[in-house]
Amino acid sequence: MRKWKRRMTKERKPRKKVLKKEERSTADIISGIHWGVRSDLAQAITLVESNATRHFHKSQEIIQEIMPSTGRSVRIGISGVPGAGKSTFIEAFGLYLCEQGHKVAVLAVDPSSSKTGGSILGDKTRMEQLARHPQAFIRPSPSSGTLGGVHRKTRESILLCEAAGYDVILVETVGVGQSEAIVRDMVDFFLLLVLTGAGDELQGMKKGIMELVDAIVVNKADGDNKARAEKTAHEYKQILHFLQPATEGWETKTFTCSAMNNVNVDETWKIVKEFVQSTKDSGVFGERRNAQKKTWFYTSLKDQIERMFFEDEKVKKELPVLEKQVGENEVSVSLAVEKLVGRYKHQL
């Protein structure tokens, strides 16, 4: 028994020391971003997405420094009904743009994942060719919190990608509902991907979403489905005549494509270029960007105030008491809110 113990003691390998990865300095990350180093861009976005206070301050130092190098891209929002082939379309469109000499970044917005705070990592596996392309960068980003948090993190990720030299930013909506409105508020051009069979689909399509987009693309227009796709596109054109256009002075375009067969994908870029030229000439392009900055400012301000309020120790203590009183009809909702806010203001 003792021999066995001695043998085991001799054979036991010493534990390897796990060296903690050294965090790069702010200056090194900024330099790397300007040189287009993907790992530095990825690290900067990770800092932006982090909820840690020290990471927030470090990310803001980086954002402040790279601001002069931002704003030179075309920002395109892409949404789509389930099954419309969104990932296939984004990959085909992204590869086309790369072949034309552009640098393409794909970012995802997913407010629906706020419960888990996780990333939707499927996009990278579904866009294998684009993910491998040296001129492309794909980042599936977690929302991990409020809609205001989604707004800030994605917007700052856009700025970082622009500073790294990406001149076309594709912002994909992964969630449904409010994500379309969020993305509309951070892009220049918004595209909706749909399927054939417009009859039932048009009934279920929210009018509000259709009024947010600058182009509607009917995908999977190939084989036996081509004629139906053309018919669907025509039906969308008719309906759009009765809706308010998303962009002043621009008529929402509708066309068909087959992302799988790479047919008519180039039409998307032609329309985007036409849109950018038209809106820059009219001044609408710059006006929208300025309005978006203002919206971002107020959204971030509200998000910060909300976070400060709920993290306050006095609020944390009083909140469950008032919640119970409201539930038992001892105090009205409005009065409970007034009491809580009053106590918070009193200690400021």
How are the SSEs ordered, and which strands pair?
Elements (H helix, E strand, L loop, with lengths): L1 H10 L14 H9 L3 H12 L3 H14 L7 E7 L5 H14 L4 E6 L12 H5 L1 H5 L3 E4 L7 H17 L4 E6 L4 H7 L4 E6 L3 H7 L2 H4 L4 E4 L7 H15 L12 E4 L8 H18 L1 H28 L1 H15 L5 H14 L2
Parallel strand pairs: 1-4, 1-5, 2-3, 2-4, 5-6, 6-7
- Major β-sheet annotation: 7 strands, parallel
Radius of gyration: 25 Å
- What is the SS-derived class? alpha/beta
Q: Helical stretch count? A: 16
Q: Provide the low-confidence segments as ranges.
A: 113-122
| Separation, N- and C-terminal Cα atoms | 70 Å
Q: Count the beta strands.
A: 7
N-to-C SSE string, H for helix and E for strand:
HHHHEHEHHEHEHEHHEHEHHHH
The strands making up the biggest β-sheet line up spatially as 3-2-4-1-5-6-7
Please state the overall shape, judged from the principal axes of the Cα atoms: globular
Overall pLDDT metric: 85
Percent range for helical residues?
55-70%
Content of β-strand: 5-15%
